[in-house]
Please model this.
Amino acid sequence: MAFFSSLNISGSALTAQKLRMEIVAQNIANSNTSITESGEPYRRKIVVLSEKNDSDNFRTKLYDAANRIAAYGGVEVSEIVEDDEAFLLEYDPTNPLADEEGYVKMPNINTVEEMIEMMAASRSYEANVTVFNAVKQMASKALEIGR
Model:
């Protein structure tokens, strides 16, 4: 049954990386949003990943008691936080949102950093797809041995 725990780990990582890519895309899409419903510019969002701990479920306890399999974990999104860095200031005295000095607050988003984050999430996603397919192929080969 170690195959199933390996698939669970890769599957949870795929889900987490997909959400990470969605949040990065949201950040890039809002990189020029100078005012939101709160009255401030859009704040960059950051995905916080952590180890998924399934050690409290019945299945894991049963396997541990029987000494058949170690508890499996995985990855989960523990939270999505807003970046508290200062807003960027852009000089545009003709903008109606400009302050008395002519500066407009813009989102704290660097599109180059966001693209790097997107590439990292994409590579992690690809790596987990590779792991998932390798485990699937190993399970298939193990079944062929039994014929």
Observations:
- The chain has a mean pLDDT of 85.
- Strands lie at 45-51, 75-82, 88-91, 103-106.
